[in-house]
């Protein structure tokens, strides 16, 4: 599950560890995250920001394959996996549409769909003493959904870094992730990562940007992602 807290100008979305320390994305967790982001959207004011983090040594370890395999047959497992992918799509769309700056505090491993969740934020901070970023699809023998590819292509600039992440299945640690331009900064501990994300969120919130304008500029910055997610653009002028 996840929790949502409002602390001053910040909305803090936390993946919790009641029954799965890896925070694997199953229908229950995906629904909980989407509900939380929708609440943030409805309560957004000028000068807000979102910080997303997680408890424990995992940020998010991707889709819940245990849930998929529990369906019994291989065909039913594939159906469940496809449904989870379909359920993550609106979560990513909601993050790209959110009318405020967003910061992901990657406090542990972020793999596959979990990495996509992190990279859907405007800024990504990562813990350096533990955890990797990892897109294991090439090792697992499965293709990536179109919106996965769009997000990764939009957020990882150098072609060689993009190749290493997707075609080599490279496990990227924090220092390498900073050098490759995947994350903004690396920090010594879970607490340090979250604290830095909070400071960044507060700094961004103090800009008091008009949220709708901020969200529309973000969408225009990533046209391929918006096209795949079917996000429409709205002309907004807040001041003349």
From TrEMBL:
GO terms for cellular component: peroxisome. Pathway: Lipid metabolism; fatty acid beta-oxidation. The keyword Zinc does not apply. Pfam families: ECH_1. It comes from the Eukaryota. GO terms for molecular function: delta(3)-delta(2)-enoyl-CoA isomerase activity. InterPro entries: ClpP/crotonase-like_dom_sf (IPR029045), Enoyl-CoA_hydra/iso (IPR001753). Its EC number is 5.3.3.8. GO terms for biological process: fatty acid beta-oxidation. PANTHER family: ENOYL-COA HYDRATASE-RELATED, ENOYL-COA HYDRATASE_ISOMERASE FAMILY PROTEIN. Belongs to the enoyl-CoA hydratase/isomerase family. This is Delta(3)-Delta(2)-enoyl-CoA isomerase. It comes from Cicer arietinum. The gene is LOC101495230.
């Amino acid at each position: 599950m996840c929790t949502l807290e409002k602390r001053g100008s910040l909305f803090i979305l936390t993946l919790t560890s009641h029954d799965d320390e890896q925070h694997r994305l199953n229908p229950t967790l995906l629904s909980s995250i989407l509900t939380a982001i929708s609440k943030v959207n409805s309560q957004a004011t000028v000068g807000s920001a979102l910080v997303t983090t997680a408890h424990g040594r995992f940020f998010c370890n991707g889709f819940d394959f245990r849930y998929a395999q529990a369906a019994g047959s291989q065909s039913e497992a594939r159906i469940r996996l496809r449904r989870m992918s379909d359920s993550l799509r609106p979560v990513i769309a909601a993050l790209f549409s959110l009318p405020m700056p967003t910061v992901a505090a990657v406090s542990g491993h972020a793999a596959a769909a979990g990495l996509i969740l992190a990279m859907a934020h405007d800024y990504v901070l990562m813990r350096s003493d533990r955890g990797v970023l990892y897109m294991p699809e090439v090792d697992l023998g499965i293709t990536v959904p179109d919106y996965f590819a769009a997000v990764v292509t939009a957020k990882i600039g150098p072609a060689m870094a993009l190749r290493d992440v997707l075609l080599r299945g490279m496990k990227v640690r924090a220092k390498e992730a900073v050098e490759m331009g995947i994350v903004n900064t690396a920090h010594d501990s879970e607490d340090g990562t979250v604290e830095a994300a909070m400071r960044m969120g507060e700094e961004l919130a103090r800009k008091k940007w008009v949220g709708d304008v901020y969200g529309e500029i973000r969408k225009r910055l990533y046209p391929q992602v918006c096209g795949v997610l079917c996000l429409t653009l709205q002309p907004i002028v807040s001041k003349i």
